[in-house]
Amino acid sequence: MKQSPVQLVYDDIRNKIIRRQMFPGNRIIEEDLAQELGTSRTSIRSALQQLRQDGFVEIIPNRGSFVVQPTLEDIIALYDVRLTLESGAIKAAVENATDDTIRYLEHNLRQQLELDKNFSISAYSALNRDFHWQIAKASLNPYYERFLAEVYNKVEVYMLFYDKSIDNSYSYSSHKEMLTAICERDLNRAEAAVIADNEKALADIRYSFASV
After folding, report:
1. How many CB atoms lie under 10 A from the CB of residue 21?
2. What is the CATH number of the domain that holds 19?
3. Count: domains in the chain
């Protein structure tokens, strides 16, 4: 099915950010996009508003649209919210996760393990987002899905540009622990795994951010 002009613009900008073709703080020039994609300024502005809502773009009045560029304080605040939301989401997932969800998470973990052979932060960030997103969906709570979607978009951007990790051994272990807790329907173990995962992720971002 043919994409709408708004979706075309949205996907183009998002993909450029995820593929590191656009960087935090880069200004998004509407005229250039209109010429490159053959779309109207109205479609571009609608896409930019959606990208802002999803956490990829910041729109500054009288200045323009920019790829989101966080401060360390922004990152700390985001991870604080992420921990709160994920703690609730995984508890709900412990109670509601289906066999299909568990099989999906197991497949994702096998893919994470394969990164040991050829690690890349872009491949890992995609798998990491997908793993956490499946748990959010398994909560069966649309509000966890809604708010974590924006959080995960921002986390993915932060990881791509500010996380200088050279492997995913620790996060693989915490993800495996999260899956084990879901399989065993263990609420306390699930929450502890989420706390450990968030603490390590934030520590990695803090360290890398300081060296940027």
Report:
1. 10
2. 1.10.10.10
3. 2
